[in-house]
Structure formats: structure tokens, C-alpha cells
Write the C-alpha cells for this entry.
Amino acid sequence: GAVVSQHPSWVICKSGTSVKIECRSLDFQATTMFWYRQFPKQSLMLMATSNEGSKATYEQGVEKDKFLINHASLTLSTLTVTSAHPEDSSFYICSAGEGLAGAFQETQYFGPGTRLLVL
Amino acid sequence: QKEVEQNSGPLSVPEGAIASLNCTYSDRGSQSFFWYRQYSGKSPELIMFIYSNGDKEDGRFTAQLNKASQYVSLLIRDSQPSDSATYLCAVNRENTGNQFYFGTGTSLTVIP
């Protein structure tokens, strides 16, 4: 149980284009999903917290107009990188919270990640 | 002070030995504690969680929690080369808007 998928797993795009990444909880409903970015040999960096039916909460320094997050259902959140540039190239990982949202028992399960390369 | 601190390592142990990974956290209000394993180039996967003081065992893994000392550890018995990865400690505090705080991870290498 507690499986999270991401699509696509790899994407290469030209500078200036937009890229959409999907995150799905396959066998549970997730009121909350999280989006992380990780550069090589660095730690996870939380970008935003996505709550179903409401606006995402972005971490300081993350441009909400550049990284659009939509959490349209209890099993799907999307991250759109708008007008991507080479410096946006990174490993993007989503996670979904299983359990009562906000309760201490809530557990995060991670998707397999999406590697983005912007040329 | 960081919310969650881990020794970045690298930690090297011989195959078959016990690997001990440590984590400290700053907020006494923290209530749940998680260990994730991340292989190079992959996303983190949950190993186990612990809520109560004491030990919790799952196969070769044992999580230990000491809330008074604000300390949580992960022991890996009979370490295998396949255990070589980065281990992330995470802490959750109730009623903080789903805030998970991750440490920067400890790199473990198990030498055959």
C-alpha cells in the first residue's frame, strides 16, 4: 500500500517552455501533497505544500508564479514549471500524506521523482 | 539551530556489522519521527516511523526514540552492501500545518 506515482519520470525541454509534472496517490487519498526539489548531492528542499481544494503554500524563496501547483482531487497534484530555464533543471519529487491531515500520525510517501533537464 | 540535525557522514561499516545513525531535533513539541532511505538518484522511501519513547523493531531495523534527550536513532543490524544509501531523519509536529522537517541525511557505506 501507500504508493505514489509521478509522471513523467524524465523530461527534456527547451528554455522558455512549460512543463507539467503529475503526482498521484494510487491507493490512498491525500489531502496534502508536498513538492520537493533536489540538486545533485544536496538535501531535499521543500518547495510547497499542496492542499486539496485550496491554494498551495509556498516556501520562502520559491516563486509561486513560476511553479504553479494545482491539487484538484484527493489523488492528484500537479506542478507546472512555467517558462523553464536551465537553472530549473533538477530532480523534482512529490510526496503524499497518508493519514489524517495535520495529525502527528500522518506519514509522507514519496513518488519516484521527475528529472527535468532544460536546454 | 536547525530543526533536525544529522551527521552527514560518510559512515562506513563492514558487512555484517551494526550501523548506527543518529538524529537530534530541536522542538520538544515534535511527536512523530520517521526514517527514510534514499539511494543515489532515487527518491526517498520510508523505512519506519516511531511515536513513543523506546525501541521499535522491524526486521533488521530498530528505531530508538528518547524524547527527553530529543534524540532518535536507527540501528541496522547485519548490514549489507545493499544498505549503502543516504538515510534521512524526519520529524512531524501536530497542528503545524503538516510540517515535516527533514535532516540533511547521513551517507552510509557498507563495505563488503
